[in-house]
Amino acid sequence: MSSTYSITLPDGSIKVVSAGSTSLDVARSIGQRLADDAVAAKVNGELIDLTRPFDSDSTLELLTSKSPEALEIYRHSTAHLLAAAVLELYPGTKLGIGPPIKDGFYYDFDRPSPFTPDDLEKIEQRMREIRDRDLPYERRLVAKPEGLKKYEELGEPMKCELISERAGDIFSEYTLGPQFIDFCRGPHVPSTKRIKAFKLLSIAGAYWKGDEKRQQLQRIYGTAWFSQKDLDEHLHKLEEAKRRDHRLLGKQLDLISIQELAGPGLIFFHPKGALVRKMLEDWMREQYLRRGYSLVNTPHVMRESLWEVSGHLSHYADNMYAAIELDDARYRLKPMNCPGHILIYRDKQHSYRDLPVRLGELGTVYRYERSGTLHGLFRVRGFTQDDAHIFCRPDQIEDEIVNCLEFAVDVLKTYGFHRYKAEISVWDGGKSGKYDGTPEQWALAEKALHRAVERVGLEATVMADEAAFYGPKIDVKLLDALDRPWQLSTVQFDFTLPRRFELEYTGEDGAKHQPLMVHRALYGSVERFFGILLEHYAGAFPTWLAPVQAIVLPIADRHLDYAKTVQTQLEAAGLRVEIDARSEKVNYKIREAQLQKIPFMLVVGDREAADGKVAVRTRKGGDLGARAVAEVVADIAKLVADKAPTE
RNA sequence: GCCAGCGUAGCUCAGAUGGUAGAGCAUCUGAUUUGUAAUCAGAGGGUCGUGGGUUCGAUCCCCUCCGCUGGCUCCA
Fold first, then answer.
1. Which nucleotide's C1' sits nearest to the alpha carbon of A595?
2. Which of A18-32, A200-214, A267-281, A426-440 has the highest mean pLDDT?
């Protein structure tokens, strides 16, 4: 063994170190600041502890707080700190897993009595105490049989399970203080004093290994950041998200409600909400017609035998409402629109010349979702899909997919989303046998998806083995104003239904062929899309969507008549206008209009009435001064016509 | 569905370690006639989510159910 190693740094410089030296030593030799900032080391491409000695000539990259990988390691170390605190406070608690996640970490625990919110504070306090003890995260190597025995003696059955499944002959474990040991790959920060800013956020139940047949554990979620400032920013962002919550805004702006008497997961659109929804639907229907779709309508309940043919009864029954018994048969509420559209396609013969046939519908479907999963407008039991099915020939599919994707991108742009990407979900090549359809069909469809993404210029990632069993798909995901991801549009091939329903068209050769079927929804669910928009705009819908686009605010009762003439002029231009005729001060009326996020407030008093003007105030720009009514009408009308993203 | 927390006036919330409840906003009435984010006064409004149990007495303690919230699982 050599007594020195040469360590190559990212800038190409080489440090020669003696055996036994660590990355931390190298960092110190460069500067104490770097040593303090370094979280872990990447040695020969492998993430390891700063305190692990070199055992060969190596390349070294020091991960500092600027690296995303470092933040994960840091959060993982914070999770260990959490577990150590829990074991100190509640001896006998059994450990599950404690990984870093987006924005934080969690740790799963098994103990007879659940944690309470008060416990959370105690645990956080104890974490700070342990942190201040400046304990090292020490890595040890253990032989598997010996280790298994040890964890069994420690009373850690879940750790034993993990070790038997995942560990090699020799595995690593990390200690923190005299008591805490965790089977863990690492790496970790060198010591607890490195952990600066964290907060425990919530307690939740979670099944061991995500399997609801296994025991349920207590999961504690927390967040951790390199600085108090980052933590504060994150907490602030959580507050902002809360402020924008569509359930809150939906109530405040009197847009929607969910009525206990009617049932959970069922949405009531109030007058203003229904108006916004109408705008979304009108836009979509207009686009359908422009883009060569035919609009159809299909029934909400249909015979159970239809769902037998479609296969929903065997594959999807758990999500379907129970049958309704009528005189002649059992009927089912539709969970999907496809079979209805297929029946329309099948109702007549098709020539290859007729294709593609594009049948679209804003179809309301009902699905039984488990009660615990319901969430505002985002997860409901009755919702309306902007659903269409395209029946086409093999030579047409690429163009059809391109059209769908262009359409999807138009949706995003129209509603002010500028950051999005696509995910192509493909099969496993047929290895598992769980996918329907022939290899030729899969190859054809997947090729079309790839080429279409390329042609449209969408950024896309390929998700292997993520396809639906009936065909590959493209999902479009977007980031909203708060950088939160949402799944929106989906374009899916379906090899199963054309076969089940024996769909056909007559080809050029006079023979019968089976058409390809594409299922696509762009808003996804109108209700959910409405909720996404509500949060994206924080309730301040752009003028073209705003349920009330302008409100006329007379200063005194004597201005009411003039206010009405102003309203009439705006309405003549097709605008949605209200008058606040109450005997209140302007300040009061402005405050209310502002809270209702009405884009334009038009104040009228003696001066305006005399000059045929209105004093314009926008919800964002404040008082803009008096202007002629006709000009204001024209400006607002133009914003509406342009579907301008803001006022 | 499961785990945990929650459910008090239309809304946001207070409250009593068991003796049938209160504020602000909103609503209604009256006064005020107002110039860019809340004018003043008065009044009405609650079987304290539901059903049961314990108790002399329950909104409070216990159980059931319903709903909501955070997760798990699932997904548009």
1. B37
2. A267-281
DSSP code for A466: -
Q: Which nucleotide is nearest to A560 (CA to C1')?
A: B33
Question: Which tens digits make up the pLDDT trace of A301-322?
Answer: 999 999 999 999 988 999 999 9
Q: Which of A389, A450, A536, A589 is catalytic?
A: A389
Tens digit of each residue's pLDDT (9 = 90 or more) over A57-110: 888 898 988 888 899 999 999 999 999 999 999 988 999 999 999 899 999 999
pLDDT band at residue A430 under the 50/70/90 scheme = confident
Query: Is A341 a catalytic site residue?
Result: no
- The contacts found for A237-244 with CB under 8 angstroms, 24 or more apart, are A237/A482, A240/A482, A241/A482, A241/A484, A241/A535, A243/A538, A244/A482, A244/A534, A244/A535, A244/A538, A244/A539
Closest nucleotide to A218: CA versus each C1': B3
- Which amino acid makes up residue A122? K
Q: pLDDT tens digit string along A575-604?
A: 999 999 999 999 999 999 999 999 999 999
Indicate the pTM of the whole model. 0.93
Paired tokens of A47: 């993430």
> Cα dihedral angle (A59, A61, A62, A63), rounded to 10 degrees?
-140
A387 is catalytic: yes
- Which bases of chain B come closer than 7 Å to a protein CB? 1-5, 11-12, 31-39, 66-76
Q: Would you call A450 a catalytic residue per the annotation?
A: no
Mark whether A519 is an active-site residue.
yes
pLDDT at site A2: 60
For the segment A507-516, the average pLDDT, to the nearest whole number, is: 96
* CA-to-C1' span, A103 to B52 (A): 46
CB of residue A623 closer than 7 A to nucleic acid strand B? yes
Across A38-58, average pLDDT? 89
H-run or E-run covering A405: helix A397-414
Question: Is the per-residue pLDDT at A1 higher than 70?
Answer: no
Which is the catalytic residue, given A126, A332, A519, A617?
A519
Annotate A504-519 with three-state secondary structure.
Answer: CEECCCCCEECCEEEE
Query: Any atom of strand B under 7 A from CB of A584?
Result: yes
pLDDT, tens digit, for every residue of A471-500?
999 999 998 888 888 999 999 999 999 999
Among candidate residues A50, A61, A64, A57, the one with its CA nearest the CA of residue A22: A50
Residue A183 has pLDDT above 80, yes or no: yes
Return the closest nucleotide (C1') to the Cα of A219.
B71
The CA distance from A231 to A477, in Å, is: 27
Give mean pLDDT, residues A551-559.
Answer: 95
The answer to whether A589 CB is within 7 Å of strand B is: no
SS (H, E, C) A127-187: HHHHHHCCCEEEEEEEEHHHHHHHHHHCCCHHHHHHHHHHCCCEEEEEEECCCEEEECCCC
Strand B contact with A212 (CB < 7 A): yes
A246 touches strand B (CB under 7 A): no
Task: Name the nucleotide with the smallest C1'–CA separation from A202.
Answer: B70
Identify whether A270 is a catalytic site residue.
no
CA dist., res. A300 & res. A321, Å (int) = 12
Distance from C-alpha of A50 to C-alpha of A42, rounded to nearest angstrom: 9
Cβ-based neighbours of A104, under 8 Å, separated by 6 or more: A75, A201, A221, A222, A223, A224
CA of residue A441 to C1' of nucleotide B69, angstroms: 45
